[in-house]
Amino acid sequence: MSKRVVIEGAAEVSAAKEADALVIVAPAPLRVALEGLGLSLEGKRAVEAALAADRALAEGSPAPTVVASSAAPGGRIILAPTAPIVHDTDDCRVLSEASAAAVSRAVQAGASNPVLLVGVPKGARFSRALEACALAAAGTAWEPLEARESPSRRAPPTELRKLTVVNLSSQAAAWVSALEAGRMICRDLVTGGPERLAPLRFAAYCEEAFAGTGVKVSVQKDVSGYPLLAAVAQASMVVERHRPCVVSLELVPEGPVTRTLLIAGKGVTYDTGGADVKTDGGMAGMSRDKGGAATAAGLVRALAERKVPGLRVVALLGMVRNSIGEESFVSDEIITGRSGVRVRIGNTDAEGRLVLADLLAALKESADPASSVLLSVATLTGHVYRAFGPYVGAIENGAARAQGFIRTLSEAGELLGEPLESTVPRREDYLFVAPKAPTEDVLSSNRLASVDTPRGHQGPFAFIDVAAGLRGSQLPFVHLDISGVVVTPADWQAGRPTGSPIASLVEALEVRQRG
Predict the structure, then answer these.
(1) Is the pTM for the entire model greater than 0.85?
(2) Which CATH topology does 8-153+160-168 take?
(3) How confident is residue 212, by pLDDT bands cut at 50, 70 and 90?
(4) Which end of the chain is more exposed for a tag (fewer CB within 10 A), N or C?
(5) Containing H/E element for 82?
């Protein structure tokens, strides 16, 4: 496991006794922002001198700047003025992204215990900006799993060990720490390569990561009870280390259970496309097609630390490799899923929805519509990125909409720098997957890539709804397509994992449980 950064709050800069750098993040013009930051006279003079020497810094420098000051902790101030925050489209990401860059720069300069001072604009939409900034800054300490495990790894000269955030309450600091514990696990599981985190090695990581947390972990190696998932895994069965499994995570609260969250996570450890093989370099980065399972695991870890009263959580992570070989399942096959629904395969590269359908069918079997919510999380389609760019694509059925689940999640995301875009399932989506012959009940996909298909991420929701046996039930069902946010920038082979939308999910669940 990656080392956790200690996160604390302080009433003022001088209260951070062990600090070795002062990091200042505020919107330009910085001279105006300085008046409300509570800097000492000596600190103000050092910043004023830097602004006088560099006009670009005063107007919002594109990069953090290190300023020497004997009055500052560690003798250094890192200035990171952002562009002015004046538009209603500006949100806390302006500050959180600058905080991450500035704290990284402080560590490069030799600091391991910086104190972060953020000039937060007034207004309700910035009410959780400090938590967002703390999360972003703490996340810079994470190092990829395989880099940490490499025998040739060279430890950096300085590492972030402690982060103190001025004006962050102790309760908020504990919240950030819990969230970062989950996000670290998520990042590890997203980026681990196809061999390092082959299905059973993914499961082993979970067993180790959840030891002592109160989360019960079990691993099902026999996946015959998940026929659609097993079909995806057919060609991988000939290689023992690539064989599939279903990882179950269960968190039971102290006291009576009042709500149950049931999560299905897509865990495709490598996606070749199967018999409909990916071409034109499309396989690069496909070891990150397990981002949904990684996010589900990270969410459960964060919730285990938060101990939300009355909330029971069960997550099923479908870990499978979509290999190509003589045993590959193929288009035109008709497979009866766990729900009893007959599925005609339209394209073997549309494998994630098959995995989710079986997992959701299993979760549905013990779900109480009055107290349960079904949630699927997946890097499901390229279309969601084509439609929304770097935002989560959220879609829910009528029962979930009546409860306002996505509305609550969206409100949380706006405050925490994880905004989402939502759509509504339409009749055309269900017509798109309607059976073409009496031999099947639903069609898994068309023959085109999702990015070339109108409503290319809504159709898969309709398929999952039908194939899981949810269509027509009163069970609230929410689907999050995280293909556009799993890494940043949106380069699946080289992008840095975000851990989004774990923070907004935890916040939304806590709000709903309190309400």
Answers:
(1) yes
(2) Leucine Aminopeptidase, subunit E; domain 1 (3.40.220)
(3) very high
(4) C
(5) strand 76-82
